[in-house]
Amino acid sequence: MTLQLRSAAMTDRGLIRSGNQDCAYAGRYLAAVADGMGGMAAGEVASQLTIEAVTPFDSLIADDQQVEALHAMVEAANARIHEHVAANPSLQGMGTTLTALLFSGTQFALVHVGDSRAYLLRDGKLVQLTRDDTYVQMLVDEGVITEDEASVHPRRSVVTQALQGEAVAPAYAKIPPQAGDRWLLCSDGLSGVVSAETMTQTMTDYPDMQECAKRLIDLALRAGGPDNITVVLVELVEGPAEPDPQGATCASEPAEPANAGTGAG
């Protein structure tokens, strides 16, 4: 039996924002979340350009080439944003986060820029594998404020790094896979209002990924839904390959699932 990914994505505008600037991808070997920022429709443009740039990388890539591929993915997304800003200066300042997971069949590789997050649920324990590129995280790292203070800080949404068509320094990680792994990639519309304990319980209690994604979004909405909410769930199972369609979801309202993807390594 081979290890394969099953993935699903869902997004919701939330209860406060007038539009949805999030975009996500759930594919056979790749999953990604992009949370746009900027004025007007610029954030939506940046996140969609980024997801369009990363989708060609949804393929079986050898372990020793994964980080190189993730770096190329970031460069491709940045180039698209740069080209659009150059062609339309009114888009100056738009940007997006990017958190993406790539699976080779024998290894996970992760790339991260911004404050969208990646969590891994393994053996009942949820671990955050990304560090927020934010002003308040910097204050926490320097010992100026506590984690609890960061969660209510007035500048908690200020990112220190994003894809904006300029030089960026992504964080990368490699993680050995284990059958039963369940990943959560999300925008801060979820992680900012739903606790890690609640996410752990929900991911444990809802084995069906679409139901789990919807439940997580419902929890964020019940907490006030102050921001766009995007969830990508990925699970690693043993079984034969089931080549289902892969898909992206951007600015869906209300919450709608992307096409799920399933692949084998």
TrEMBL record:
Pfam family, one: PP2C_2
Cross-referenced InterPro entries: PP2C, PPM-type-like_dom_sf, PPM-type_phosphatase-like_dom
Keyword Disulfide bond: no
Top enzyme category: hydrolase
Gene3D superfamilies, alphabetized: PPM-type phosphatase domain (3.60.40.10)
SMART domains linked to this entry: PP2C_SIG (SM00331), PP2Cc (SM00332)
Superkingdom, taxonomy of origin: Bacteria
Residue ranges occupied by any PPM-type phosphatase domain in the UniProt entry: 6-236
Gene Ontology molecular function terms on file: protein serine/threonine phosphatase activity
Enzyme Commission number, as recorded: 3.1.3.16
Swiss-Prot/TrEMBL keywords: Hydrolase
Renumbered residue ranges of the record's region Disordered: 240-265
PANTHER family assigned: PROTEIN PHOSPHATASE
Protein name per UniProt: Protein phosphatase
Species for this entry: Catenuloplanes atrovinosus
Lineage: Bacteria, Bacillati, Actinomycetota, Actinomycetes, Micromonosporales
